[in-house]
Structures are given as C-alpha cells and as structure tokens.
Amino acid sequence: MPILFLTKGCGHMSEYYNVAEVFGENVFNDTVMQERLPKKVYKKLKEVIGEGKELDLETADVIAHEMKEWAIEKGATHYTHWFQPLTGVTAEKHDSFITAPMPNGKVLMSFSGKELIKGEPDASSFPSGGLRATFEARGYTAWDCTSPAFVRQDAAGATLCIPTAFCSYTGEALDQKTPLLRSMEAINEQSLRLIRLFGNMTSKKVTPSVGPEQEYFLVDREKYLKRKDLIFTGRTLFGAMPPKGQEMEDHYFGAIRERIAAYMRDVNKELWKLGVTAKTQHNEVAPAQHELAPIYAEANVAVDNNQLVMETLKKVAGRHGMTCLLHEKPFAGVNGSGKHNNWSIVTDDGINLLDPGKTPHDNIQFLLVLTCILKAVDKHADLLRESAADAGNDHRLGANEAPPAIISVFLGEQLQDVLTQLISTGEATRSLKREVLQTGVKTLPDFRKDATDRNRTSPFAFTGNKFEFRMVGSNDSIAPPNVVLNSIVAEAFSDACDYLEKEEDFDTAVHNLIKEQAIAHQRIVFNGNGYSQEWVEEAGRRGLPNIKSLVDAVPALTTERTVALFEKFNVFTKAELESRTEILYENYSKALNIEARTMIDMAGKQIIPAVIKYTTFLANSINAVKSACQGAAATSAQEELLVEASQLLAEAKAALGKLQADAEKGSAMEAGRKQAAYYRDEIKADMDALRAPVDKLEMMVDKEMWPMPSYGDLIFEV
Ligand code: ADP
Ligand code: MG
After folding, report:
1. Which ligand is nearest to the CA of 297?
2. Which ligand is the nearest neighbour of the Cα of 464?
3. Are 451 and 413 spatial neighbours (Cβ–Cβ below 8 Å)?
4. What residues have CB less than 8 Å from 637, skipping those under 6 apart?
C-alpha cells in the first residue's frame, strides 16, 4: 500500500513568523473577551472565573454568541465540549453550528448559552467503574470557564473546543477535571487560612501552579507500521538490543537533527496558536527520545494544555512521516519516558508560598509550609505513588529505572541544614549562602550558584521554589497527581490552622509546630542516591512503603486514611474512589490482555513462520553442500545453527502455547483486583518466557527474513 508522507524538511524551511503574533491566535482568551464582550458581560464573567460566582443564562447567551462569531471567523463549522473521561484520552462529540433550514432554504449559525454551559453526551460507553448502570446512561458535561475555549484547526476543519467537566446524572465525577477543580478549591481555602495567620489580608486567592515536562520518542512511521506491537500497545514486545544503546550518553542535549528540528518547529507553532507556552525542547537521554516543557500555568489549565501537548505531538508527527510514542517504556533496556510535574502554590498577587527567600531559616511561614508538605507526603506516600500508577509506568517505577518506587523528598543542602538545626535545637539561626561559581577562567562571568545542587534520582525534589514530582507516566493525565498534591497539602494546612487558630501565643505555637512536624516527618527526607540498593534497605528500616506495581498501589485509593482525606475536602466520595479503583484494575488487565494477544499474533503469524523459513534455508543449504561435497565436515557450522535455532524455536513454541492458554483463562476471569494480579504475575511471566527465545532468534536469523524492523532500525534511524 503506498503511503504518502511529507518527509524531512517538509518544505517549511522558508516559513518564518513572529511568535508574539501567532501566540494564542486560536484562543478565546482574556484579550479577545475584553475586545468582544459588552463591558457588563465581561465583568460578570471575570467574577465567575475569579470568584466562583454563578453564571446566569442571559450572560451565557451573550458569551456563547460572541464565542461563535469569533470561532466562525477562524473557520469553525462545529463546536464540541472537550472533556477528559477516565479512558486516558480526551473525548469530544462535534455538533455543527447550523440550525434547521429556514423557509428560504438557508441555515443560520447559532450557539446558545445553554449549549455552551451544558452538554449531554451518552455516558454509557465511558468507564464509570460501576457508578452508573448502563440504563442510567445520562452524563453531563459542564463548561469550565477557568480554562479558555480554543479553536482547533486540523483535517476535520476548524472546531470550537470548550473545556468541560464530565459528571453522571447524580453528580458523581466521571472524569479527571471535576476532582481537580474540587482539590483546587480545597488548597485555595486552606492556604488562605494559613496566610491570614501570618497577617496577609490582601491576597484573595491561592492557586496551584503546574509545569509538566513531557518526554516522548519519535520513530519513523513506515517502520512503525511494520510493528504490530507498537501499533496495538505503544511499546515493543519483542526486540533484541542493538550493538549500541545509550551508553555513550551522546544523545542527551545533543544537537537536534534537521528532521526532528522541523518537527519541533511545527509542534511549537501549533501549540503557540493554542496558547500553550511551549518553551523548552531538547533531546533526552535515550536515542530518539526528546522533551518538551511549557511555562507553568494554573493547575487546571496546565492539565488541559498537557492534553493538547500530547495530542499535538502525535498529530504533527504524522505530517513528518514519524510516529510519536508516549508509552512509558517503548523499548526494553532503553530509558523510559516520564513526566515531571513541577508544582507550587501562588497567590493572586504573585506570592509563591514555596519561595524560601534568601534566608529560609527566618522565613517562618515558609518553614511551616515546608514541614506541612513533609507531613503530607509522609502521611500519604502510598497515595502519591498510586497517583502515578499505570500499566506502562510499572516498567519504570520499581523496575530499576528512574525514579524509584519509594516516595521520598529531596530538600538539598540549604534546606536540609535548616531542618537539621530545627530538629536539634528547635531553632534555626542561619542559612547556607549561595556561593560564587569558580570556573578558574577569567573571561567567564562569575555568578552565584543556586543554594542547592539538583538530584535527579529523587521522586519528589525541591527545586528552588517548587517541588518536582518525577514519577508521573509520560502517557498519563497529570490530573491525578495534582489532585493528590492539592488535597494532601490542604489537609496538612488545615490541621496546622486548626491548632494555630486556637493558640494565644502564635509565635511560640508556630515554632513548636514547625519543630514537631520536622521531627515527626524527617524520615521522608532523603538527599542521597535514590537508585541505590542501600536506599531501598534504608527506606525499609524507616518504614517507608516501596510499592512496585499498579496492582499493589491501587488499594491506597480506598484506605480509611484516603477516604477521610478526600471526603473532608469534598474531592471524592467513597463511591467515586471505589469506582476509580475498579477502572484502574480493569484498564490494567485490558492493557495486558492486549499485549498478550498482540504477542500471540506476532509470534504465531510472523516470527515462527520466519524462523521456519530460516531453518528450512539452513537445512537446504546443508543438503546442497552435502550433495555437492559428499562429505559432512563442511556443514558443521550450518548444522550447529540449525540445531540452535530449532531449539529456540521449540522453546518459543512452547512458551506461546502457555501464553495462549493462560491468556484465555485471564480474559475469562471476573474483572477486578484478582484478575489484575493474575495478569501481573502469570501473564507477564509468560510474556517474558516467550520474548527471551525470540530475542535470541532475532540475533541469529538473516535480517532479510526477520519480519519487522529491529531496535537499531527504530531508534537510530529516525
Ligand atoms: P528541568 O531543568 O528540571 O528539566 P525545565 O525547564 O525543563 O526544567 O522544566 C521546569 C518546569 O517547571 C517548567 O515547565 C517551568 O515552567 C516549571 N516551573 C518553574 N517554576 C515553577 C513554579 N514556581 N511552579 C510550578 N512550575 C514551575
Ligand atoms: Mg526539563
């Protein structure tokens, strides 16, 4: 089948543009609203966005009309409520703006306030984890006016996309956004309580800021299409290591090649048009691996934008004859991909509560915030770990790869020093100063170093004025980890305020509380090498959980501690948590079942036939040589190869049979924890047993006969 690709360079080389003009071009942002909406309506909407006031239908009608006019100017023919059900991807259902034809046969383009604020997709086909029987199919999408609407232009034409939350008929969350918005309210309320205690009466709102760094792989699309495992599962299920891996570390931050650079250029432009602040791009550690980071934004906008980043990375790859792999572990033996969720809490007047200032030791508010976060992470380490659980991420977390599955907090030299003082004397009297960087070269500028070096092995690292949660999977929504972060920190703030608001002598009380929290939760702090075996043992002695798989992580969602946390702040009800638990197990089992079936298909229809061809070829060669030479000695090499290949073939055939039988058992099981555990324990072992002889065969069989591109072809020849 001939496939048409735009390859290399893509003919875009001559197109230059001004970023400032392009940026946000397709977003119904504040500037557009200010320009287009009547003053009164604009003011009302700002109150809804900023202060959570209710939106009346009359105002919504005006906004909807203006939004439609604006979108039509951008070429939009349809609108969609854009939402994030628990499928892992975004969902949309398009409606065109046209109305019933008028007597003259023409149509009008219309979009009402009601259509803007409420949608009703049939919810029965989205995962609900038992929250909703199929006969109660109603589900509603509700406009999230805090995340701007945008026009997406692609092959389908232009579509007005309205970010929405997605709930069941009875108001239970069926998506990622609803709990996120609820958790943002919780952290807002509790942070305001806390800063009021320190005399801040002016800040009106506190919002979590999030900057997610996104890792991804690019492979050539023609090669990708020859790998059923990549097509169906997003990762390679077979594949021998190439002679060269990432050991030379020559890819990390290496010069970006033309084909990739042209791709990144296109990605940036698309994202900028959508108002996504794509900022940093570089090659990552593994060959063919790259990273894109935006400038941080309010949590819910960051979550939506990250979805757009993932969609755009995939879409633009197609135009460049490539495929973007977002799977956490596309290639065994090569670094996997994650997402680093940078998180801080900032007031509406720009104060970052995680900013230690120059002298953290006398920044009492910061020390309280910091020790509250230590408490939150220590108390809910299992939940934070769970928030990054995903079938693909099991290959990274706890599998000797970055980061380790044990949650710990990296503070760095300066803060560790302050913490040590607090713990030993109850008082911190000094902060380590930032030193001048000495390069020994006169012509290089002297500048002050950061107070702390980085630590790339910590799952939860303090980096100057934010925490970086490094466990999140590259393919996952960043909503769950942020829901957890917002909620657990809100709880710690709330506990602190409950205590401090009652005390007469605030200064003494706050000092005592900081010291108490520092002592009680110092075990969660670890500044060393998170990948080392010593740490695993040390963490065990400290009693920190080391949760290696999704199946073991999921129970954290429904412990008494977790339910109490989420119910207290109305983030999740117990029923919602139970439903999410079911969905997680089910999605995990489904993912592994697809992997097993893909392996069965590839082994049975492609690999075994190829090996048979090869062995037949060897046998024929032996016979030919024998009849020509009439002697045995000359064929011993071929015979050895034939014996070896036949043995491996037998091994593979037996492993395939076992995998087939076990996979059948697995899919017949009832969905739930038991089934998921079966897939993790039995099916994964079966898959490994099949992969091992096949990978050895790949190293022997004539490359011309091997039915798919190798690792070398995939990651070194993009
Ligand atoms: P790194 O050197 O860790 O790879 P990057 O520049 O790739 O750093 O990414 C850092 C991310 O952290 C960016 O998305 C950036 O916008 C974000 N960030 C910076 N400051 C904050 C903050 N105060 N709160 C949240 N995110 C932040
Ligand atoms: Mg980075």
Report:
1. 1
2. 1
3. yes
4. none
